[in-house]
Amino acid sequence: MILDPLFDRWVWLGFLGLLVVFGIRAWVVESTGGRATRAPGRVRLLTVLSVGMVAVVCGLLWVQGGQQAFESIVHRTDPLTGLPLDGPAVPVQPAVAPDAGAPAAPGAAAPAAPAVNPP
Amino acid sequence: MTAHDTRSNGPRDLSASDPEATQVMGRISAGTVADPPTTALPVVPTPPAQAPPEPGWFESRRPLLERWLSPVLAFLALTMLPLAVATTDLDALDGWGLVKVLGVPAWLALLFAIGACLTELHAKRPRIPMLGAATGVLILCSTGLPSVVEPAARFGTSWTISGFVDAVATANGVPPAGLDARFSWPAFFAQWAWFRDAAGADQLDVVLRWFPPAVVTVWAIGIYALARSMLGGNRAPWVAAWLFVGLNWIEQDYFSPQATGICLLLTVLTFALGPLATRRTDPNGVPGWPPPHVGAKRLPLWNRWLVSAMTPPNRPTLPPKQLLLVYFCAALCILAVIPEHQLTPFAILGQLALLAIVGRYRGRGLVLIGVLGVLVFILIAARDVWTTQISLFIGDGNTGAALESGVANRLAGDTGQIVGKYSRIGVAGISYALGVVGAFVYWRRRRDLVPIGLAAVPTAFAAQGYGGEGFLRIVLFGLPILTILGADFLRFLVRWRKWFRPVLAVAMVGLYVVLIFIRGGNDSYQTVFPRDLALYRLVVATTPPGQSVIPLSDAGPFAFEGLTLFGRGGGVQGCGQIAAQPDPVPCVAAINADVLVNYRSIEKQGEHLFLQKPGWSLQLANTLVAQGTYTMWYQDPTDPYDFVLRKTGAPVLSNAPAGRPG
Predict the structure, then answer these.
(1) Which residues lie closer than 8 Å to B113 by C-beta, 6 or more apart?
(2) Are B596 and B644 in contact, with CB atoms under 8 Å apart?
(3) How many CB atoms lie within 10 A of CB B208?
(4) How far is B177 from chain A (nearest CA, A)?
(5) Which residue of A has its CA nearest to B369?
(6) Which of B283, B373, B390 sits opposite A72 (nearest CB)?
(7) What does DSSP assign to residue A63?
(8) Nearest to B379 among A54, A66, A86 (CB)
(9) What ranges does the record give for the region Disordered, renumbered to this chain (chain A) (predicted)?
(10) Are B417 and B95 in contact (CB under 8 A)?
């Protein structure tokens, strides 16, 4: 997957916006005082806005490499090549159909039987 | 009733003259019916007042001693330090390290410093400024002792990091790409590059030398502040700070990003457990919900946990503006540490998340800010690292191999080295044992097990791929809380039995002696001399850019200048350190460097850690010169082990002063 580095600026801007919204919400919450009463409307609005900003930043991160990193971590694969991390260091060569007339190598396993109902 | 009541005309008796007699039984005449006995008590004459015993010599002079003894001891400790420099023979360093070559004045300085701390702690009213000053002297005489007695900063790694700063400074603040993964967390390098430029300096030699005692002082202040919040009292927080300094053998306090990271970690923890701390209480301040009716059946445990979790934490008592300022500073610290060090943000966020779950501080949004900040930084700014070295983050899942590389493989070297390394394991075990016992004491006193959870959070690092160093970080990140809990245990001991006080004083002396032994255990190959620095600067000045310059091992100062100018070799399988090879000649041929650099520290490392024969590096140089592949380009006239070999025929810049050509 090729990521566009120019799109990174939107992630940074989104995170900056998140910090600003969190800061404003903290200011309003702490300045309001009184925890026994129900949260004022502007606090609830800022809470919704904060959740929205978190969602926006998470979405941007997912697009800008998050998905790639997540799949690499879950499947333990290399993010660029997609090859398994725990596998052999050298990529496995694609199997070549054996020459029909060539003799089998000594000790080679017998070819698998064809599937009865191939998908 | 006044003191002299003249209204009474009744019969007077002896007791009337006794001011202590307040109730007198009346006389009973014969033949009358006796009244039931009253409850009046018989008059007991007071014993004659005894003169107070004559105060002893100590008691009579106690105010004077409490005022002056601690400052005098601290002053004596400081006066011993120049003598310690003069009586320490660094040329005699061997596998036992610094402890074997320190002169008597160095040990006296340590004793005086400990005495200054303990006498002030023992005073009836300990003075905070004096305790602070005594703690500073203690740090200088223990952790800072190598900075005092050695002429330059120890540790090749700290010089390499200085080279990173130099690379950022010479590139006008832009970290070089593709050179080292640590450049992807460039905040520390950029910070010091800015300091360096602002100060008009071109090197940080003095900063590197005095960085460890300075940064440990900042750490000790953090421990003190944290312990003030957790333990309270006037004395226990200071004991926690001294215990932390005494148990901090890990030596991550050199000029490095993690040293600054620990400062920020302690700041955030102090905020969370201090001004932002909350308890889950009802409006009256009682923890948990009001108790059930008398005789009512107790709720099940899960029910109590659920109720506790659903109870909103109360507000700290700070005014809103101060609270907002603390939020801002805490968020700033978290955001500052993210581009500075790889592991510290995870330690901070893990501990903050635990505190948030149990509702111990107000401002749980800090965890969210930190988590998103880490994700944004790693996914965007450190993209080159995770796309090419994803195993650095997720590990290889083999904790046993990490344990082997982190602990077992390090148990190498001569007898002094082995004893020192087992001592490190022992002191780490003592730290955890003290913490666990302290957690039990803390739990008995406050019914709180969260602190030991904070100390356990860093153990999660064992699962990632940071390598053997990860275990050092586990101990380091857990040590602040472990020592605070340990101080609670020590306080319990001295309150339980008074005779523990002298025992613990002696134990403190023993702990600090062990600390100097452990921290200085590798000094035979970690000590850096000014001639080493001059030699490498000469190499930088005379070597054309593009040539590969490598040392025979990683001990000693290297790459602190010209990091981006020269190749650093490497990449040859099995030849990571030439000094560690039984036969180094094939590795030298395989690496094929243009310039080989050697110091006395590398010679000593080969001798004491890799068990090479004494003089192995000179023998290697002679072999290479005899083969004709290299020429001895420079050899320090005062130290034959400081030499430079150049490949035969390799060009040398002629505009710089050359040493003694071979």
Answers:
(1) B73, B74, B77, B134, B137, B138, B140, B141, B142
(2) yes
(3) 24
(4) 16
(5) A19
(6) B390
(7) I
(8) A66
(9) 96-119
(10) yes
- Residue B594 contacts residue B549 (beta carbons within 8 Å): yes
**HSE, side-chain direction, 13 A CA sphere, residue A57:** 26
AA identity, residue A19: L
Q: B374: Cβ–Cβ under 8 A, 6 or more apart, which residues?
A: B338, B345, B346, B349
Contact partners, residue B528, CB within 8 Å, separation at least 6: B150, B151, B152, B153, B154, B155, B156, B159, B556, B557, B599, B601
Q: What is the pTM of this model?
A: 0.84
Inter-chain residue contact B383 with A76, CB threshold 8 Å: no
pLDDT given at position B290? 55
d(CA B596, CA B606): 16
Q: How remote is the C-alpha of B158 from its chain's centroid? A: 17
Averaged pLDDT, B37-59:
76
**What distances in angstroms separate CA B194 from CA B83, B168, B172, B202, B255, one per listed residue?**
37, 9, 9, 11, 15
- In sequence order, what DSSP letters do the residues of B247-304 get, joined into one string? H--S---SSSHHHHHHHHHHHHHHHHHTTTB---B-TTS-BSSPPPPTTPPPPPHHHH
Residue with tokens 């089998």: A104
Q: Are B208 and B153 in contact (CB under 8 A)?
A: yes
Under the phi-then-psi rule, with left for phi > 0, alpha for psi from -120 to 50, and beta for the rest, what region is B398? Answer: beta
Residues of B in contact with A23 (CB under 8 A): 328
Q: Are B153 and B204 in contact (CB under 8 A)?
A: no
How many Cα neighbours within 13 Å face the side chain of B180? 19
- Best to test chain B binding among A8, A11, A15 (most B CBs inside 10 Å): A15
Residues contacting residue B99 through CB under 8 Å, at least 6 positions apart: B513, B516, B517, B520, B521
What 3-state DSSP class applies to A79? coil
Helix B320-337 to helix B365-376 angle, to the nearest 10 degrees?
Answer: 20
Nearest CA in chain A to B328: A23
> Nearest-CA neighbor of B605 among B39, B231, B95, B159?
B95
Interface probe, candidates A30, A56, A68, chain B, greatest B C-beta count within 10 A: A30
Euclidean distance between CA atoms B236 and A78, whole angstroms: 51
Measured between CB atoms, does A55 come within 8 Å of chain B? no
CA distance B548 to B530: 23
CB-nearest partner of B320 from A12, A31, A80:
A31
Selected for mutation to probe chain A from B390, B392, B396 (highest A CB count within 10 Å) is: B390
Which among B323, B376, B386 has the least Cβ separation from residue A11? B376
Q: Which residue in chain A is spatially nearest to B316 when comparing CA positions?
A: A30
User: Count of CB atoms within 10 A of residue B662's CB?
Assistant: 15
Residue-wise pLDDT for B341-399, tens only, equals 988 999 999 999 999 988 888 888 999 999 999 999 999 998 888 888 877 777 665 66
Counted residue by residue, chain B has a size of: 662
Model confidence pLDDT, tens digit, residues B257-287: 999 999 999 999 999 999 998 865 555 555 5
pLDDT at B6 over 50: no
What single-letter DSSP state applies at residue A65? I
Determine the residue of chain A that is closest to B282 in CA distance.
A36
* Amino acid residing at B230: M
pLDDT tier for residue B34 given thresholds of 50, 70 and 90: low
Q: What is the mean pLDDT of residues A60-85?
A: 86
Closest by alpha carbon to B615, among B587, B567, B579?
B579
Rg for chain B, CA atoms, rounded: 33
Indicate the SS3 state at residue B48. coil
CA angle B607, B611, B613 (to 5 degrees): 60
Handedness of CA B628, B631, B637, B643 (dihedral sign): negative
Q: CB–CB of B361/B299 below 8 Å?
A: no
